[in-house]
Design a protein that fits this description.
Blueprint lengths: L1 H18 L6 H20 L2 E4 L2 E4 H16 L3 H4 L1 H8 L4 H5 L30 H12 L3 H13 L2 H26 L2 E2 L5 E2 L2 H11 L3 H39 L6 H17 L2 H30 L4 H10 L12 H16 L6 H5 L7 H8 L1 H21 L5 E7 L2 E4 L4 E2 L2 H11 L3 H32 L3 H20 L2 H14 L1 H31 L1
Antiparallel strand pairs: 1-2, 3-4, 5-6, 6-7
Helix pairs in contact: 1-12, 1-21, 2-22, 3-9, 3-23, 5-17, 7-13, 7-18, 7-20, 8-15, 8-18, 8-19, 9-10, 9-14, 9-15, 9-17, 9-18, 9-23, 10-11, 10-23, 11-12, 11-20, 11-21, 11-22, 11-23, 12-20, 12-21, 13-18, 13-20, 15-22, 18-19, 19-20, 20-21
Length: 539
């Protein structure tokens, strides 16, 4: 009955927004109202400092230096312990991790949990390693991998791919640190529900360092920004690009078409997110493999069908990383900024958001989930973003669009038209496999939907940290979140990129301060876990 009430209330609230219209058109009216704020917020978060005559955003400097430091300090954990991470996800060490943990059995529903899914919550968590990874990957492997890679390539040319991959490799170490801390400092209430993420390791971890006031301040700042990021990059951007793909493919028209598509997404998402992390995890562990098979399968087919061109493609990627042909401000530094910026949005390493999902894992050893977390940037950026980039570069071998000539997020094509984001990727796929744009549409919708689900959980955790854990608090956030699903589908790509980029990247500031103070705690946890699995190997 409660769920029915929620859905009815949600449908009424969102429909009220969609029903409003004027001669100007609903979508255009929403966009015009939203754009000034998006521009202001982007300029604030991406403030630059001059280094050797180049303007470089401060947030990217923080990300790069932090990721490089963690990679060196932990002895290239991203490379040396990659095989270990795979074994952890496969469940090889589950019994070791939970040895000695007293199990308890709960047979009723708690806070939206599904019957039959919480019988083993005594594992000190709510989901297993694979479910935690699937939920977090579904939050990072979204339309940033499809749409924003196209934006990066159209602005910076093929060379942006090199910097994206480098950012992904370094980001694996950052993700290891934040996911370990997420589990170490999480809060588990009496019914087994987990509350975790940067809000908790900032407040609790810094308090241990006698920096309690700073920790509390940073935790509150992070929570506020995380809520904004859940509305923007984790929600509005996803529905925006899904709507763009559907409208472009079927040539829909009408002043409120985007809003209507957003409404459909909102209703479907509402049905899932009412169930909490367990229902989200159950959906994402099924959706993520399907969308990966669809998208990665199509991309690999295109790549192998044109394998003879791979030498030229990778030649462009490496050479133009330092001597770009694209007319981009700042030369190779401008290309580097594009690559790191898109990678940061895509895999969120340093933003801390994924640590919220990883905190719910069932383990007694925080570093085990840190190792699982480092797989995210590899899957997201090193694999999927690179595949997207290669497909787009192949498509543009004959100069279909002009690298560097981008207006409002859209590249200039030879016929004088402008397209951006997911529509460029769609053309690239369709050019190689006739009819594949329909497969891509399905993948896009799954990518968008799964990301919306994961980010609804991230934002809700931050919301509850600020406003409490009552049911009304829960309901209020979910209604607001779903309204942004509609809003995102109605505004332009340029507006939503500005807002979404800045919201995701803003999380870096409070989170990285905490990581750079608490990383010695991660080393201690890592040593304990390595000793545990080493003993198992020797037995």
């Amino acid at each position: 009955m409660g769920m029915l009430y929620f859905l009815n209330f949600q449908l009424f609230s969102i429909t009220s927004v969609v029903a409003f219209s004027s001669a100007q058109g609903l979508d255009e009216r929403i966009n015009n109202a939203f754009m000034p704020f998006a521009v202001w917020w982007e300029n604030l978060i991406l403030s630059e400092i001059s280094i050797l005559g180049y303007g470089i955003p401060v947030v990217l400097i923080v990300l790069i230096i932090g990721a490089l430091f963690f990679t060196l300090y932990f002895g290239f954990v991203n490379v040396r312990h990659f095989p270990t991470a795979i074994q952890v996800v496969r469940g090889k060490y589950d019994e070791l991790e939970n040895a000695g943990v007293k199990l308890k059995t709960i047979v009723h529903e708690v806070d939206g949990d599904l019957k039959g899914t919480i019988k083993d919550e005594g594992h000190l968590g709510e989901v297993n390693h694979f479910q935690a990874l699937a939920t977090a990957v579904s939050g990072t492997v979204g339309l940033g991998n499809i749409a924003l890679v196209a934006v990066a390539i159209s602005i910076g040319g093929p060379g942006a791919t090199f910097w994206m991959v480098l950012a992904g490799l370094l980001g694996m170490s950052t993700k290891f640190v934040e996911c370990t801390l997420g589990v170490k400092y999480r809060d588990i209430d009496k019914d087994g529900t987990v509350f975790g993420g940067p809000m908790y390791y900032l407040s609790r971890g810094l308090k241990e360092k006698r920096l309690g006031y700073l920790g509390k301040f940073l935790a509150v700042v992070f929570a506020v920004l995380c809520i904004g990021a859940s509305f923007g990059g984790g929600n509005a951007f996803q529905s925006n690009q899904a709507a763009a793909q559907i409208i472009g493919l079927f040539e829909f028209s009408g002043s409120a078409t985007g809003s209507i598509i957003g409404l459909v997404f909102a209703i479907l998402a509402g049905i899932v997110i009412i169930g909490g992390i367990k229902r989200i995890a159950k959906v994402t562990e099924k959706v993520v493999p399907v969308m990966a098979i669809l998208y990665v399968g199509a991309a690999l087919f295109i790549i192998f069908s044109k394998i003879e061109l791979m030498g030229e493609v990778f030649g462009q990627i490496f050479s133009e990383a330092f001597t770009p042909k694209a007319t981009i401000t700042g030369g190779f530094v401008g290309v580097m900024i594009q690559g790191f910026r898109r990678a940061a949005f895509s895999n969120e390493a340093g933003a801390g958001s994924a640590a919220i999902a990883h905190s719910a894992v069932s383990t007694g050893y925080p570093a085990s989930e840190g190792l699982v977390g480092l797989l995210e940037p590899f899957i997201d950026t090193v694999l999927i973003c690179t595949m997207t980039a290669v497909v787009i570069i192949l498509f543009n071998m004959d100069g279909a669009f002009i690298y560097g000539d981008v207006l409002d997020g859209q590249a200039l094509f030879k016929d004088g038209s402008r397209l951006g984001g997911v529509n460029i990727t769609s053309l690239a796929f369709e050019n190689s496999i006739k009819g594949s744009s329909y497969v891509l549409m399905i993948a896009v919708c799954l990518f968008a939907f799964s990301t919306i689900l994961s980010w609804s959980y991230y934002g809700l955790q931050a919301w509850k940290y600020l406003f409490g854990r009552e049911k009304l608090t829960d309901l209020t956030y979910k209604v607001l979140f779903l309204m942004f699903t509609v809003l995102g589908a109605a505004i332009t790509l340029d507006a939503v990129i500005k807002f979404s980029d800045a919201m995701i990247l803003a999380l870096v500031f409070p989170n990285m301060i905490g990581l750079l103070i608490l990383f010695p705690n991660v080393k201690n946890e890592f040593k304990k876990y390595i000793v545990l699995i080493s003993k198992n190997k020797s037995d």
